Every structure is written in C-alpha cells, then in structure tokens.
Amino acid sequence: MPVPERDANGYPVLPPRPTLPKLRVVSQECRGCHLWKLGTQTVFGEGPRAARILFVGEQPGDKEDLAGRPFVGPAGRLFDEALVSAGIDRSSVYVTNAVKHFKWRPSGKRRLHEKPNAAEVAACSFWLELELRLVKPDLIVALGATAAQALLGQAFRITRDGGRVLDSPSGHVLATAHPSSILRAPDEAARREGARRLVADLKTAARALRS
C-alpha cells in the first residue's frame, strides 16, 4: 500500500469510507506527535466492530509494541484472567489504548515505560475518537487514570469515582485500575486485592450491559 498523504498536523489523510481495518493500516503512518519515533509501530485497537463494550488502556507496553497488538503482555494476561472471572468474553470486546505508541526510556538493555503527557494523549485522541465513532459501544471501560482522564477530564480520580458508570461526551464510561498498576503493587496481598477490585468493577460493567 502506498504511503498515505498527511495533513498539516501529521495525520494520514483518511480513506473516503474509513473502516477499522483501513484505519489500522493508515495509522502506521501517523506523525501527529513525536512518539512515532520511539515506538516500533502504531499499536491500533482490535476487536469486533459490533462490540458492545470498548476497553481503553493507557498505551502499549514493551511486548505490545513489538507484537503490534494491545494487551498481550503481562498486564494483558491479568486482564484476560479478570475478564474470565467477570464472565466477559474477550473475543466480543474491542480493546485499544488512549495513546497508540510506546513511550519509553532506556535502562541498560531494557525499555522502561514512561507515562504519556497531556499533549501526547490529546494528539492521539484523533484515533480514539475514530474508533469510538465506528464501534459505537454501549459502554466504555477506562483502564487507569490516563484513559479515564482522556474520556472524563483531568479532574477525574479513580479513587473517588472509579467503579461507577458515568455519562461523558463519549458515552457511558466506567473507570477502573489498569492491570499494570496491579502488577506494580508492593506485595502479593496488595496484588490480590487489586485483582479482586478489578474483577468487581468488570462485573459492574457486565451488569450495566444487561440492564
């Protein structure tokens, strides 16, 4: 496929009738912010167009950056386990990230995650808004503070309003912890409690779809 034309902001000019597969291809040529220089590739969302629930994480991690797929690393495994416990079939949901490139800094031979800033999240909202427009989910689940604030505003706090279905310009949103934050908990007891709360919030999401 030829390299697509880009607009003045560095975004690829979209095909006349965008579809998720077409967007996945053209997103590889995005230059909307500098993170394309760090990431191996754009990690676009995946899942069925008719998904009733859409999950938004922060950004791809090291494993996702290399694989080109969201939630396939250690946090992805915890996410899959939580979905099973909550009775949600991953093949029926759409999974993506607020930022589509891996932001990292070197530490020896390792690539350490760095939190994307507000400008980087805002630049990548171009893609997230397109995904939301095409999928039209009944419920959006924001995994972590970056995703939650991208959808609900900078004042949102998961510790205060997480686990509840809220209205937003993007639709109904429920925010919960990102699986990676659970993996970073200081001890096994804290990790178990974090996983329990994540499953509880996902069960709330599942009930919301049935109501």
Number of helices: 8
CATH topology: Uracil-DNA Glycosylase, subunit E
CATH architecture: 3-Layer(aba) Sandwich
Percent of residues in β-strands: 15-25%
Tell me the overall shape: globular
CATH homologous superfamily caption: Uracil-DNA glycosylase-like domain
How would you describe this protein?
The protein is built from eight helices and seven strands; from the N terminus they run αβααβββαβααββαα. It has 211 residues and is an alpha/beta fold. The chain has one domain (20-210): Uracil-DNA glycosylase-like domain (Uracil-DNA Glycosylase, subunit E). α3 (74-86) crosses α8. The longest helix is centred in the last third of the chain and has 23 residues, at 188-210.
Short description:
This protein has a single domain (20-210), classed as Uracil-DNA Glycosylase, subunit E, CATH 3.40.470.10. It contains eight helices and seven strands. The chain has helices at 20-26, 62-67, 74-86, 118-135, 145-152, 158-161, 179-183, 188-210, and strands at residues 53-57, 94-97, 104-107, 110-113, 139-143, 165-168, 171-176.
Q: Tags for this entry?
A:
211 residues; Uracil-DNA Glycosylase, subunit E; two-stranded antiparallel sheet
Show the helix and strand layout:
Elements: H1 20-26, E1 53-57, H2 62-67, H3 74-86, E2 94-97, E3 104-107, E4 110-113, H4 118-135, E5 139-143, H5 145-152, H6 158-161, E6 165-168, E7 171-176, H7 179-183, H8 188-210
Parallel strand pairs: 1-2, 1-5, 5-7
Antiparallel strand pairs: 3-4, 6-7
